[in-house]
Write a structure and sequence with these properties.
Blueprint lengths: L10 E5 L4 H12 L3 E6 L2 H13 L3 E6 L7 H12 L5 E4 L15 H29 L3 E5 L12 H22 L5 E6 L6 H6 L11 H14 L5 E4 L3
Parallel strand pairs: 1-2, 1-4, 2-3, 4-5, 5-6, 6-7
Length: 238
């Protein structure tokens, strides 16, 4: 480890890393010296992120996959075990935003998809990578959430419900592992950021009026470099 590469020797997994906050986070962690495993559904987009990391002198491995497929996460955990036998950093960023609507008009198929990715896949990620995080000796988990999980807002019921469950899972996991391992958990609300998800929710908004994903990626790098107490919660200001 060096001042220029404070995360050297660490292995990080970032989900939803093909664009936006996930891609920015992967690049920031790789720049700090971590070997970053990046996952998303679209291989071509992942390859672009991987190429950018390599051109900047970092190291990355792509793992194209759909986190909602039953065995995909277990296969990834096996691959990480075989290559590194540990995981130092897990950034849970992948999420689906269902169409905004009144609770009485929530479209069930889209709601089920969001529940599967935002909630069920989160539990499987934690279960599958918990042994590798403990093997690290200083495993760190960062989950990207939304304010609507803690502060319900009209028409955001479907997404807010999944993020409330997401927060609960991470908070319970943080308490469960705190006294039996060195694994620590942070829940980070990125706030208004220039992402495709934000553009879908606020189609009339000028994207230049909200912060770039790189601001969030850099804050995650700072958290992991300076370290944090377990159950850390933070909202990134504009």
């Amino acid at each position: 480890m060096s001042a220029e590469k404070p995360l050297a020797g660490r292995v990080a997994l970032v989900t939803g890393a093909s664009r936006g906050i996930g891609a920015a986070t992967a690049k920031a962690l790789a720049a700090a010296g971590a070997h970053v495993v990046i996952t998303a559904r679209k291989a071509r987009d992942l390859e672009d992120v991987e190429e950018a990391i390599h051109q900047a002198g970092g190291a990355a491995t792509i793992a194209p996959m759909d986190l909602t497929e039953s065995d995909s996460i277990a296969r990834l955990a096996t691959a990480v075990t075989e290559r590194w036998d540990k995981l130092d950093i897990l950034v849970i960023n992948a999420a689906i935003l269902p169409q905004l609507s009144p609770v009485t008009q929530i479209e069930q198929k889209a709601f089920n998809q969001a529940l599967t990715l935002n909630v069920l896949a989160t539990q499987v990620l934690l279960a599958s990578f918990d042994p590798l995080l403990k093997r690290s000796g200083r495993g760190r988990v960062i989950g990207l959430t939304s304010s609507v999980g803690a502060e319900p807002r009209a028409y955001w019921g479907a997404y807010g419900a999944t993020k409330a469950a997401f927060d609960t899972l991470l908070s319970c996991y943080a308490q469960e592992v705190e006294r039996i391992s060195e694994t620590r958990v942070a829940i980070l609300d990125p706030g208004a950021s220039r992402t495709q998800m934000r553009a879908r929710a606020y189609p009339g908004e000028d994207p230049q009026t909200v912060k770039a994903p790189e601001v969030v990626g850099e804050r995650i790098r700072e958290l992991l470099t300076a370290d944090f107490l377990t159950s850390h919660r933070e909202r990134i200001s504009p």
